[in-house]
Amino acid sequence: xxxKELKQAFEKTYGKQPQAIYFAPGRxxxxxxxxxxxxxxxxxxxxxFGTYLLLAENNDNKLRFQSLxxxxxxxxxxxxxxxxxxxxxxxxxxxxxxxxxxxxxxxIKGYDMLxxxxxxxxxxxxxxAAIEVATACAFNDVFGAGYDKTELAKIGQLxxxxxxxxxxxxxxxxxxxxxxKDHAIFLNCQTLEFQLVPVKLEGIKVVIANTHxxxxxxxxxxxxxxxxxREALAKKDYTNPRxxxxxxxxxxxxxxxxxxxxxxxxxxxxxxxxxxxxxRDDYEVTGPELDAMAExxxxxxxxxxxxxxxxxxxxxxxxxxxxxAIPTFIEQVGKEYKAKTGLTAEFYVAEIGxxxxxx
Length: 359
Known about the structure:
four-stranded antiparallel sheet; globular; Ribosomal Protein S5, domain 2; about 25% strand; 2 domains; Alpha-Beta Plaits
């Protein structure tokens, strides 16, 4: 949908025009998985698709949340802001507004909000972070808070922790906030120092393959991995497979960025493959669908590297594929994946886009 259609949808929903429109992108992580919550390095980029938020003041002292992607409508009094039960989708934006209130800002009016996203939900491309960052950006303007994009990412992360109940790291929200077209973000999750690295892939594209086996980070397994890895690292138990993944993945990420900066794409691809193996064997977050997708990709001539991306347990793989091999890749990987799992994959040739903005 374009902004004209979104404005019409807002008017149809709320009987008035929106006062502002915001856009925050989804993200894909090229390498550096399950390292962010332990302060490691990651290398994500923002995508050209994401989530739009349209909003307007109301005089009812209500926060109204509607999405064109989800049928559930949510209404909350501005005087009673707390997490909603039953894993309600509106916890993602509501948690961001709560962060402003926790910091001393006061809601003196209600707001009507309409969300629409073209990030496939449950694909592991951070539709939730896009909602959070779009909301954090909108209410930064509402309150005149003057926060920078890093602070907006922190607000989104706290919303995820306190309202959605997922102990995620900062990567997803950071990529959605700080992304830049044709660049990936080399981020130190301990210090939040980052470098925008040009992604010059001559004759190569980033291809995302959706397993259509939705990952569910709030199922508890993600939080278990956070706990297990933190305990192993605190004890300096580096033979523990959870700690071993963290240490080897941090090294792979720094090596991969160095290889990209030298134009050594073959090494970057090899490190992607090794990352998947570590996530499969040491961290145990891939599952049969992601493994089937990656293994099918590794067989194709013209695939530089392929690995799971995101939280795991379903979701997507990310692959670097030579332009001329993309049709074969989509056909062969799709065919083999369906034969192994019974599921139909979906493929997106990704474009690297900018971070959050007012449209």
